[in-house]
Amino acid sequence: MLSIHLFSKVLGEGLNEIKAHHLLFDNAIDINPRLGTITLNEKRMALLSVEALGLLRKELITTLSMDRAKGFLLRLGWASGFNDGSCIEEMHDWNSKKELILAGPSLHTLEGLVTVEPDVLELSDDKFYLSGNWYHSFEAEEHIRHFGCCDEGVCWILIGYVKGYLEKTLGKSVYIYEQQCMGKGDEKCYFVAQTVEEHVPEYQALLRYFQTELLATELDKMYSEVHSLNQSIKRSEEIHQKLTNLLLDGDRLSSLLEVLSRVLGRSVVIERGKVLASVFYREEDRRVYQETISNETFIISANKVNLGKLIIIGDQPLNQEEQMIIQRSLSVFAIQLYTQRMMVQLTWKKKVDFFEELLEGRLDTKSFLESAQHLFEFDIEKRNRVIVIKSESEEKNESIRLVLNAAYPTIDMFMKECYLVLILPTGLEEKTTIYDTLSHMESLIKKEIKKIQYYIGIGRISNSIVEIGDSYQEAFRICDFLKEAYPKESKRAISDQIDPIMLFLRSMNPKELIVFYEKTLGHLIEYDRQNESSLVLTLKHYLDNNGNINMTAQQLNLSIPGLRYRMEKIESLCQVDLKTGNGRFHCQIAILVYYMMKVI
């Protein structure tokens, strides 16, 4: 470790040789009160307040940007340090290069910008290294005052000064950086200087800031950027206006997309579960789109509703103007898609209202038929079947609708709150066909939508306008029943499968039915599971035989005492009296639900 005082003792050669610590304000700086000048080696200097320099720094940063201001201030510091190095070298005889180098920190301190305390100095023909502490850095103080702490060193003028001074006095290209800086929250500032050949790679980016550029050049660059930005804004506004005019003229989404594709010179796709519109600028982009290579995606939304995705396909990243054009275009696409959505939802509401009125019997048959002909594609007087699908969210239900609509475009589909309703027309109503159709639907859902849980309720086959209302109601009841019965797994059920309990589903809330079943048989089922017994089966045979002990014992190959023991156990677990009609009736309903759930 070396200091100014240490070098003043060991490196001097004769009493007249100047030492770094000999530099005092009085013998280094010449002040002429009459002329109002301050000079260093006959070169004029100026005394400025650090507040003024801090204000200059603030104006440069806010006007030019942080990065450009950094380059300007580094070069300003370099010019100051290079000039001081030239002056101090000419003012005295420096037999020791080390003393000349250490004079820089002394002079820098005298000028009032910072207190410099050299730490390590290594100088030889093939190596140079200097490090030290900066205390009371005016730059760190002013930067914090105007901008607060940041994530990098901020003593740019000081860094430039050291570089300029050393390059003049050392005669080599030197690299300077701050290991610590108060401007980024450190306790002190610590600098390192070494030749460019030996510099630390992580700080290499600093070198580019010392390339000579005038302030006018910086301003020209900014003007050019602002002009370019202004042109991009005008261009994006023109495209936005063109798309808006097409929208107001009633053009389709594909027409709007063609305009955007021509402007960008890229293939573009809008999708929401399926492709809504696409324009492929190059044929090979179809493959690129399928493989999701080099695709940039933008969300189209309105009123916090996700309406779809705009996908841009191309080899090169989007430039600033293209980004602006796309952002302006998104608002037009959002209006188009949101309008379509509102129209579709209005149609859905009319279809829901139709079924509500049908179930409530508010209109006569003739009125219903006329209404149905305007709303639906299917023939309401022929054989049809209603399917209702419910998933964990409306968004997932919408995804299911898009997937199934792409596969079955002729089937009537509409949304009712968190349910998707489908009406299967003539030709899809036979049992063999309905099972195949359901299997195909489920395979599509699982393939296209990952991690989804759903419930599918299928109503009975209808042969008239009245019966389709029953099928509609049954499908909803079955769907709700499945959700309550199987909260953790996807299930489907057809009314024919659970016909024995449909009477109860029509007359009571599915949740109430599940609660009743669990309350009645829950402990009994759990007992069978834990003990690998068959008390539920015993209860079923007992009820099937209308409580006849002898017939039940004979069917189960049990002794009369053995069956009585079982029945007592069942009564205890179910908390019912099977000798009463009410007790047996409760258990019969619960047993029906149990076995229907096993069938599903």
Automatic annotation (TrEMBL):
InterPro entries, per the entry: CdaR-like_regulators, CdaR_GGDEF, NO_sig/Golgi_transp_ligand-bd, PucR_C-HTH_dom, PucR_C-HTH_sf, V4R, XylR_N
Superkingdom of origin organism = Bacteria
4-vinyl reductase 4VR domain: which residues?
Answer: 133-195
What family does the entry list?
Answer: Belongs to the CdaR family.
Name of the molecule in the record: 4-vinyl reductase 4VR domain-containing protein
Organism expressing this protein natively: Peribacillus asahii
